[in-house]
Automatic annotation (TrEMBL):
It holds the Pfam family Formyl_trans_N. NCBIfam families: PurN. PROSITE patterns: GART. One of its GO terms (biological process) is 'de novo' IMP biosynthetic process. This is phosphoribosylglycinamide formyltransferase 1.
Length: 528
């Protein structure tokens, strides 16, 4: 798509669009009605042809517009983009020119005109923004193509607000709108704008999210980094941001506490049975389910009590006194649960700096999960994906070896997979019954993840080891070497996605060692 830009001053939006080339749109020409306009130099720097068509003294608007049209007629133009073009266009221009867009520094129809920022501040509103609209003879009243909001802060003046609206709203909205027209996803039909791209769907063309600062944090991941936590008041799922900290005298949560507590809470939501998990640096140090919460916690802790030191405890049932007694037996940073008995609180409050969080909900399990997507910030944007809520059932498993697992081992396989979903990739996990035995996380080599899980099981686990355990892998084994390491550790069953070109070699290695193996058909990478 070829563009004609029209500006009377700096044309910063036009420059930004030229640099972005949304949808492949390119400027054929930039025209101004002021021979001294800085936009001329900016266009020359970008090798964009320029034209100056000034309005002569006493010249009518219509006559001036005819000369502008004559000038543009020498260029290939599919869309006209105005940016601070300080003339009201008449039907003389609009009827003859291609679709013409303008960007206005407010959320129209509120605050039209030249002094939008002053109007916003005088009105005392908390949100303003930018509007891209089709230009008509009515000033700032043409059909809206898209809008972008920005907050208004209590100490804003017009200059500060103008900068924020430009960089955070206009620079987003204008390229978006032009890109839609360039790719055919937007068009003007019978005086109305039809935008095919801007529809409600799982991954919409744009995301607008509001969050309120819930707390300033002492620092971020490290003391030299400033940090804050923001909350989404619309989230219905029990979460650590909205949790009540019951021992108000204890120090507030840190950045890392929030991150780890969120990971621990998400893990224990996987299970309908009483479950406990200990998290360290967002990885499970141990997890278990059992008939009672105290048994589950004891089994989880026994996986790696050394690594659990200073960790985060999450429970999916209200904490009772017996479980509380076990928790305070070693140093923990935070415990998070859907409630506490009075006796449990008396025990937990004995530790001055153990933060006690109540997320509510009574019993936590898969049915409390309501957030369907997760996101991860990047420099310059965000990654958004569906939340990984899938876990295999027995009917999903494809048994591929000569030896088949027992029903008890199948139960362990399904348990292990749910925990493995929360282990950083490359991740390998050993489990027996419904408790973890060893965890190998965050390795760049899958065979090293197996070795780490085996080392953890043999050297750090209390009262359990890898002999006879189930091994779960978050992605396929590309070679049989991972199976060889597992066999040496005493593994008897493997659950993994399958799908490697060397699956046959991996199956053969299992058969040689009498190991049962099942494929899930899905992997469960976790990189953040």
């Amino acid at each position: 798509m070829k563009l004609a830009g029209m500006a009377s001053n700096r044309g910063r939006n036009l420059r930004h669009v030229a640099d972005r080339a949304p949808g492949g749109a390119e400027f054929s020409v930039i025209l101004t009605n002021d021979a001294d306009a800085p936009v001329l130099d900016a266009a020359a720097e970008r090798d964009i042809p320029t034209e100056v068509v000034e309005r002569a003294d006493g010249e009518s608007r219509e006559a001036h517009e005819e000369r502008v049209l004559d000038t543009l007629d020498g260029y290939d133009v599919d869309l006209v983009a105005l940016d601070g073009y300080m003339r009201v266009l008449t039907e003389t221009f609009l009827d003859a020119a291609p679709t013409t867009l303008n960007v206005h520094p407010s959320l129209l129809p509120s605050f039209p005109g030249e002094d939008a920022h002053e109007q916003v501040l005088d009105a005392g509103v908390s949100v303003t923004g930018a509007t891209v609209h089709v230009v008509t003879e009515a000033v700032d009243a043409g059909p809206v193509v898209t809008q972008e909001p920005v907050p208004v802060y209590a100490d804003d003046d017009a200059a500060a607000l103008k900068d924020r609206v430009l960089y955070d709203a206009e620079f987003k909205a204008y390229p978006r709108a032009i890109g839609w027209f360039a790719t055919g996803e937007a068009e003007v039909v019978d005086g109305e704008v039809a935008v095919e791209a801007d529809a409600a769907e799982a991954f919409p063309i744009r995301r607008i999210e509001g969050a309120d600062r819930a707390a300033d944090l002492r620092y971020g991941e490290n003391p030299h980094q400033d940090a804050a936590v923001y909350g989404d008041a619309s989230c219905e799922e029990p979460n650590v941001v909205a949790a009540d900290q019951l021992n108000e005298g204890a120090k507030a949560l840190s950045y890392n506490n929030y991150n780890d507590a969120d990971g621990a809470l998400n893990l224990i939501k996987e299970f309908e049975e009483p479950a406990a998990a200990v998290i360290k640096h967002t990885n499970p140090a141990g997890c278990a389910t059992a008939d009672t919460l105290a048994e589950a916690y004891a089994d989880a802790l026994a996986t790696d009590p050394m690594s659990a030191f200073g960790g985060i405890v999450a429970l999916n049932r209200p904490c009772d006194e017996e479980t509380a007694e076990l928790i305070i037996d070693s140093f923990k940073e935070v415990v998070v649960a859907p409630g506490y008995s009075d006796a449990a609180l008396d025990v937990l409050f004995e530790k001055d700096n153990l933060r006690v969080l109540d997320v509510g909900g009574d019993e936590l399990g898969p049915d409390v999960v309501s957030e369907t997507h997760t996101d991860q910030s990047l420099v310059g944007g965000r990654l958004v994906q569906e939340r990984d809520t899938w876990a295999p059932t027995e009917s999903d498993l494809e048994f591929v070896t000569d030896v088949e697992p027992t029903e008890e081992q199948v139960e362990t396989m399904l348990f292990a997979w749910k925990v493995l979903k929360h282990v950083k990739s490359n991740g390998v996990l050993f489990a027996t019954d419904t408790e973890t035995v060893g965890v190998g996380m965050g390795q760049v080599s899958r065979v090293d993840a197996v070795r780490l899980a085996a080392m953890k099981a043999d050297e750090h686990a209390e009262g359990k080891d890898a002999a006879g355990a189930v091994m779960a892998s978050d992605a396929f084994f590309p070679f049989p070497d991972g199976i060889e390491e597992a066999a040496e550790a005493g593994i008897e069953v493997v659950i993994q996605p399958g799908g490697s070109v060397n699956d046959d070699d991996v199956i053969e290695a299992c058969d040689e060692h009498g190991i049962a193996m099942a494929f899930t058909g899905n992997r469960t990478f976790r990189h953040s």
